[in-house]
Amino acid sequence: GANSMWGGRFAGGVDAIMEAINASIGFDKRLYAQDIAGSRAHAAMLAAQGIITEADQQAIDAGLAQVKAEIEAGTFQFSTALEDIHMNVEARLKQIIGEPAGRLHTARSRNDQVAVDFRLWVRDQADAAIEGIDKLMRAFLAQAEAGADWVMPGFTHLQTAQPVTWGHHMLAYVEMLGRDKSRFQDARKRMNESPLGAAALAGTSFPIDRHATARALGFDRPTANSLDSVSDRDFALEFLGAASICAMHLSRFAEELVIWSSAQFRFVKLSDAFTTGSSIMPQKKNPDAAELIRAKLARILGATVALFTVMKGLALTYSKDMQEDKEQVFDAADNLMLGLAAMEGMVKDMTANRDSLAAAAASGFSTATDLADWLVRELNLPFRDAHHVTGSLVARAEAKGCDLPDLTLDEMQSEHPGITPAVYDVLGVDNSVRSRVSYGGTAPDNVRAQVARWKEILG
Ligand code: ARG
Description:
- With 459 residues, this protein is mainly alpha-helical.
- It has 19 helices and six strands.
- It is elongated, with a radius of gyration of 31 Å.
- It starts with 15 loop residues before the first helix and ends with a helix.
- The site of arginine has 10 residues, from helix 6.
């Protein structure tokens, strides 16, 4: 038979394939709480404006409360024929309260309804992301504080570059995550406008109060243009953009953990709680969680690209293409939250191997730059000449199979006669990191100051 929501114009029902491609209830049932909250706010406003009676509003409100309870109890019968969460809820409401249910959709369309539901859902997820990032930042901060002066190699091209401190490396992620958090906060502010009352696309002739529904749902204000209200999915795209950048950061640290936990590096030990064994190789302790976090960006970025591609070229206003927004965002949000939580667990649990870090920091001629800087400072060499002298010394050490501090003073002086025993001070990694006191540099004192700054910011 014809659909009860618009059956007036239709004589027959739809093909089964049409029903399958059209239905979104399989996934948009996740919006049930937002849908019901939006409807209750709408009904309260309709009554306050004298558009429906108080009695009808009370019946609607009680009926919606019952629908919500049924969904949460798992007794609600979802129907694919009813397409989506909006019509499933309304149809059940009609079964429960009868005629007044039909008055709920006055001055509203599914277009503004889905827009408000989805904004409310994405807003909650932005809050969840902010919270998840905050917790992860605290985990990194604790690592930074514990190891403010532990030396480790700093890398470029994954080649030993200069010694840095463990705390400095941990704080690099705190900075990244701080920006990630602010991106979600920023997106949240922009998305926090209510599209409810834009109706199908043009607004309505009923004397509605959009400011009241916006307030009731925790929005800062109603959206200002009805066409934009029902066709805008920027809020979802911004969420996905922020999620992609954050997931990219998680993926980078995940990669570092994979490298660092290897037998060749032994920089960190991951906890049993976040690793797995092998069914054949008894020695194995695999960093699976890190690997999965590293991979999560693939689907989060995939969702971002998918939604951009859905939205591009859509003439205003609503097109059914936009129903494809939800699964992408649901999947991206779920995986971001999971990635954040797993990374928090790993960072909390991991133990830095100070000895391996220190040994690695001292190898690979990591203090060559300190030596060149010393030649500039003490012997007044132009930096380019100092670089050349140091390069020759590195070549000598390499040929001899030793590190820079193992070269004799004679060997040093054969590359430059002005070199004195004082040079050995700057060849030690501890002195090297202690000397990097420029603002933002790796010196332990800087790290401690930045830890204090972040503690204050995070409260
Ligand atoms: N299920 C639809 C969606 O997710 C709801 C909006 C339907 N609007 C319409 N005009 N068919 O986008």
